Amino acid sequence: MEQGTQIPDSLSHLPEDEARKALVRARRTAFVARFIVLRESKRTRAHRVIEVMQWDDQTTAEELAEAFREVFVKNGDNMMPVDRDIRRALAHANRSINHFIREYNQRATTNFIDALIDYERSNCLLFGNEDEEQPRTGGWRLPQELIKQREEGKIDIGKPRRKKH
């Protein structure tokens, strides 16, 4: 079985099909969470495209990584640091999954705005609600700003990416 696809013991109480779905959601969530952190200090127009992306509930971490990578390629970014960050985020998803699968599964999102909201919530839990204690953002827009622009029709979040079969 591929790395990251073996069902952990913590999901053994679920029917196999549900456990596999939970594993996909959890790995994808771990990947996105780490990707946000790794790219946080970098500024690129590719982030503006990724911020409004959506995906299917069963899109894998690898499929989403490839979709993110395509955005950077189309933007003309230097791919060496992008590929490094994608590799690191995928490795994190594989390493952390056995310990945090339930949490990552519960936090699973199907769009980047919700992932940014989850990231902010995690920072509040880790660092408190004081602004000076929070990590500085720079590479990503604030989720509240994205939500407001979406509601005003200023950004199009497009259609969800479908899982390839």
Q: pLDDT under 50 segments (min length 5)?
A: none
Give the CA-based shape. Answer: globular
Taking all Cα atoms into account, the compactness measure Rg is: 16 Å
Oligomer: single chain
Distance between the termini: 18 Å
Tally of DSSP β-strands: 0
* Biggest sheet character: none
Helical proportion, percent range: 55-70%
Query: What number is the mean pLDDT?
Result: 85
Would you list the SSEs in sequence order as H and E?
HHHHHH
Tell me the number of structural domains: 1
Number of helical regions: 6
Classification by helices and strands: mainly alpha
Q: What fraction of the residues are assigned to beta strands by DSSP?
A: under 5%
Summarize the structure.
With 165 residues, this protein is mostly helical. The protein contains 6 helices and no strands. α1 (16-39) packs parallel to α3.
Describe what you observe in this structure.
With 165 residues, the chain is an all-alpha fold. It has one domain (15-151). It is 59% helix and 0% strand. The chain is built from six helices and no strands. It has helices at residues 16-39, 45-50, 61-75, 79-106, 112-127, 143-151. The longest helix has 28 residues, at 79-106. The protein is globular. The protein starts with 15 loop residues before the first helix and ends in a 14-residue tail after the last helix. 29% of the residues are buried. The model has no long low-confidence stretch (mean pLDDT 85).
